[in-house]
Specification:
By secondary structure, this protein is an all-alpha fold. It is built from four helices and no strands. It is flat, with a radius of gyration of 15 Å.
Length: about 110
């Protein structure tokens, strides 16, 4: 159980780094935010790579495939909280399917 908590926490932290860093770069490029946003975003995106590499899952492909499902759900949550995005039932169903896929890939003891 502890292993699954570590995996989950690292996936969430990696997702926040990737989405947060991407959001800052997006703001600089598309919303005329200051260059500082882009630089900070780039550093946070680099931190994402480090956090993702801390996963106890040994296979790179499995780690990134499972992370992709968490990323989908986190991106929707980010949109709701930060941008006021209102997901429809298809967005929610798609995220749920992706998270179920993560559980299928990661939950069995490896």
């Amino acid at each position: 159980m502890d292993r699954l908590l570590i995996i989950g926490a690292l996936f969430v932290l990696a997702g926040l780094c990737e989405i947060g860093g991407g959001y800052l770069v997006w703001g600089w490029m598309r919303e005329s935010k200051p260059l500082f946003w882009a630089i900070t975003g780039g550093l946070i995106l680099a931190a994402y790579g480090v956090v993702a590499a801390l996963q106890p899952i040994t296979e790179f492909g499995r780690t990134y495939a499972a992370y992709g499902g968490i990323f989908i759900a986190l991106a929707l949550v980010w949109g709701i909280i930060i941008d006021g995005f209102r997901p429809d039932r298809w967005d929610i169903l798609g995220a749920l399917i992706a998270v179920i896929g993560v559980v299928v890939m990661v939950a069995p003891s490896r």
